[in-house]
Amino acid sequence: xxxxPPRTLILLLYSMLCASSKAxxxxxxxHREVLPIxxxxxxxxxxxxxxxxxxxxxxxxAMLQGGDEGQVIRSGDALASRLFETICGDEPEMxxxxxxxxxxxxxxxKRWITQGAxxxxxxxxxxxxxxxxxTYRSLPSVNSLAFSPDGSLLAVPGRHEILLHHxxxxxxxxxxxxxxxxxxxxxxxxxxTFLVACGGAVSEFGEIQIWDTRRRELIRSIKExxxxxxxxxxxxxxQQVAVGCADKLVRVFxxxxxxxxxRCDNHLDWVFGTAFxxxxxxxxxxxxxxxxxxxxxxxGHLIDDxxxxxxxxxxxxxxxxxxxxxxxxxxxxxxxxKMEPRGGRLSEGDNKEESFVREFEHMASPIQxxAFSPDGxxxxxxxxxxxxxxxxxxxxxxxxxxxxxRGPIFAxxxxxxxxxxxxxxxxxxxxxxxxxxxxxxxxxxxxPLP
Length: 450
Fold this sequence. Notes:
Structural class: mainly beta
Number of strands: 29
CATH superfamily of the domain at 139-265: YVTN repeat-like/Quinoprotein amine dehydrogenase
CATH architecture of the domain at 139-265: 7 Propeller
Radius of gyration: 26 Å
Distance between the termini: 75 Å
Largest sheet: 7 strands, antiparallel
Helix content: 10-25%
């Protein structure tokens, strides 16, 4: 038996190692390579709430399940897979009314299917949480504000973090870093023991963050959907959280275990706000589809339309004591409604609004935010024009009018004693106004600058 020369043997072993290494490198990752292509090109039409042809391409399991015409992936055989067939050719069927996929992207999908269409570990994508606190070179816009019930803290979303300020504006107490690059909404629990925020990464994931307020620790991160969450609300029992989403769905999760306990798909566009009734059994939601809806949490079924369809709704807030909600939208009007069934959904052309309470003074710009004072006596709203108005909730009488000029105001929150209202928006500055006079009390940056 002949023996190979040492040099030849070494070269042979080296080539085998290189081939093995190359084979590993050529394995296509579903989460790192395939899913980003689908999110960019496909999920706008194939996602929960808008699954054309019954096909959902937001998760591996949903893809393998297929759509109305059956399976779209045949593991190990790309040429026999409907998904691959639709993205190929001189005039591919998909994506509809959009640019075709790049040859490199088509090749990745083909190789992934040929290799068995396997789902690798989602953890391979890694955490988004920054290792160090964000260094700001400019002030980010402020899209949500929340005071703690004891009046000591003000929560403000930043980039990849929540900043906890002393409520008197004297400085930042703590910085709570998380995975979401953008947080859309923050709120404290009734007792102030925990802070809940929602947001996510556009076209990637929605996230709910639940923080222990005293220890400044993340209790739970709930990641769902393929798009950002909006309008977070905590149930009166402090056991559940509700969010709306850009995928048109409304979701409710348990705080204790993070499990989804309700999903409703009755909206036709982005859902921006949620609010629990006092008994925690029902939920009012508002959407860009112009609808405010009352939903049964146990079943996820629509109980009633709350309003008559008028304008895209942008914001929602509930009365701190009574089962009332105030809505605002593109028309520039606050409307107050009861959070109770009217006895049937609105029909086409039906102007009946038995849940309607009152309408407030018209603003000449879309309303971006609404907030009740802790005692429910006042309600404030802000507009795209930068104007803020404060009203008596029981009569609609205007108490103060604060002129704009510093850009849109996206967020409002009353201090714990109700004597001041904080406003934040496009310019990244926080301003406190006197509730009765509208005068500026204090002003400071939402984030620290060098």
